Structures are given as C-alpha cells and as structure tokens.
C-alpha cells in the first residue's frame, strides 16, 4: 500500500468516526460489527461494549420481528430500506444534545439501511445510517404534539 493510499484510508476512518451521523454495521444475524463516534456520543454506549452483541440485546426496545422484516430487502434484494421519523420517531433511543430542543426525551431520526457487498459480491452485512432530524421534526409539529412526544 502506498503512503498516499494509507493516508486516504486513515482519513476515511477518521471521517467515519467523526461524521455528524450515526453509522452501524450489522451482520445477517444482527450482531453489531462497527459503531461510530456519533453512536457512542448519543447512545452513551461505547463501541467495545456493543461490538459482537445482538442489536436486540443492546436496544431491547426494537421489535426484532419488525426490524428483521424491514431489513430483508437489504440482504435479499440488495436495495436500501428507509425509516423516516414521521413513521417512527426513532429506531435507537438516543439522547439529543441540542440546547434548543432540551425539552424532548429523545432524538428524532431518519434511518437508511444500506447493503454491503463483500469482494465476492455477496451481501452478508448492512450498514445503518442514523440522521438526527430533531430540529426538522420540531419545526413541523405543533407545540401540543411536541409536548405529548
């Protein structure tokens, strides 16, 4: 590997850890393989404590049968799957850290599940991107709806 290639690889790892978006890699058995800095910060769960564990053990509030069905097209059809905050306010119960939204008990999220092919073209993993859309959710809701969240 050239120095330039190594530098670019290092930069990519740094971006994954520091991007303002949650990134999680799951295998077909829904075991957590990768957990970035956003998830550490917002979930309060350190990567070493979640890697290798079942997503459903780490987040027992996720309905396993529903999530498996939602994930099936990602693995079988190699297409993305989406969960938007209007359908489900959050997938991962995470705290938000924005002072303007201090009255809410959780972070509103948009979720995208992406297939990840290996070098043989097989999809045995997916990555989940988690976007904090709390400000968008607040802007579109009435004060009464926000209070009942």
UniProtKB/TrEMBL annotation:
Name of protein: PAS domain-containing protein
UniProt organism field: Salinivibrio costicola subsp. alcaliphilus
Pfam families to which the protein is assigned, alphabetical: PAS_4
Residue ranges of every copy of the PAS domain listed in the record: 10-76
Top-rank taxon, per record: Bacteria
SUPFAM superfamilies membership: PYP-like sensor domain (PAS domain)
InterPro entries named among the record's database cross-references: PAS, PAS-like_dom_sf, PAS_4
